[in-house]
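Researcher: I'm comparing several assemblies side by side, and this is the next one on my list. It has 505 residues spread over two chains. Same procedure as the others: predict the full complex and return the structure.
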Amino acid sequence: MTHLLHDELQHLKHILLRMSGMVEHAINMSVHSLLDNDESLARKVIESDHAIDMLEMEIDEMCLRLLALHQPVAIDLRFIIASTKINTDLERMGDLAVNIAERALYLIHKPQIDAGIDLKRMSDFAQKMARESLDALVQSDSMKAREICRSDDLLDDMNRQALTLLAAYMENHPEAVKSAVHLLLITRHLERIGDMATNICESIVFMTEGRSIKHHAEEYG
Amino acid sequence: MANAGATQDTGASRFDLIGRAGRNANKPEQHKAGRVKIRVENLSFHYGKNTALRNISLDIFEHRVTALIGPSGCGKSTFLRCLNRMNDIIEDTRMEGRILLDGQDVASPAADVVELRRKVGMVFQKPNPFPKSIFENVAYGPRINGIRNRTELAGIVEHSLRQAALWDEVHHDMKKPGTSLSGGQQQRLCIARALAVRPDVLLMDEPTSALDPIATAKIEELIDRLEEEYTIVIVTHNMQQAARVSDFTGFFYLGELIEEGPTEKLFTAPDRKQTEDYITGRFG
């Protein structure tokens, strides 16, 4: 029975990593569709989301089954609880990639907005946070996870800066308000991807150390 | 029908760690350690040349359930039996260290062992009622403690059987032999027998290992209720049971106490790797 549980936990980890790979790819594609005006890439992101949703349900069911049948404790229990949370965060990241792709599809056909936002830098940073959080998950590396949590402040700053710049742009270019709102929401989606990466890292710390660092920014150190 | 009802109750109240946490949320004082009932200091125990316990120190808190877990032969039962000097009856054994029950060292040769065993009752793995009637099983202890008055004895018997949640099932026929009851009822009779001499502490050595799940659930619910009046120490091989019924847990391995602490902590994030390996089944 116990050996069976450990086999199943390995399987759960395997599926979770597969899902994280798919989500990382979706974020990557959505950002490129936006930066390169690539319509087909944007559509690919939207189409690929169904597979992520299906995997989310599979992981949910698996966690529920393991909890019900094995009554796991200690590291096994924490791993399953962390998996359910990471699963939700990953699925949400996938949705954010879709949101970015949808807005990219709108913006592709509109005149470019030159509001002074460094969208490439911001999207690179969000992608980096997502990628590294998933690396920390693969390696169960709580030190790295804490480092990623700390870096989220920088992305928050970039988002606030984008809001200021876009608000000023909208005042001066009322004809481009709709496009600017889409762009503003894209920066918000990128910022949310950073938040999801932070959530995943908090779950990794909980899983490896058995302590919660949620809502305790001082413990990121 | 009584059993069917008990099963439903059990289903609702036995949600393992979650249920326990929920109950504790309503009774925050459950988390507090409280007064030390038994303080064990540097206890070692030897069977001839073999050392069964090495330098164990542990506080057992009043009105709390303390569970002792660990693989077979780890010393947990030996430790339990030290607490009321049951090991004294085994030849060629030696005990070192102190066991302070309410501050009095019961490990010292000068201690009154009969009085100790009245204060510290014991329930064993296999139900072992005397070959006597239900009434006489429970009245036995008070009787040898000098209580002769029939009315007083009847009062004690009823109270003990009620505390052991057996009264409703047996009061109509108290002359029936104790051995004619079901396994679960026999175990509750043994608990009633232990309670009849009004102990402070109840030691339980795998009290449900010979019982079916329904009888086990009844004993576990009973432990939950008895905690209000007694200090309980339970040895169990069933880790889910330790998680369900206890406030504190001690993990023994090869005669040493590897880790002890609040049950919720031990079963969610133990400090020692050996504990984690044991409770998650990664041992050896």
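Model: For your comparison table: Residues 150-163 of chain B form the longest helix (14 residues).
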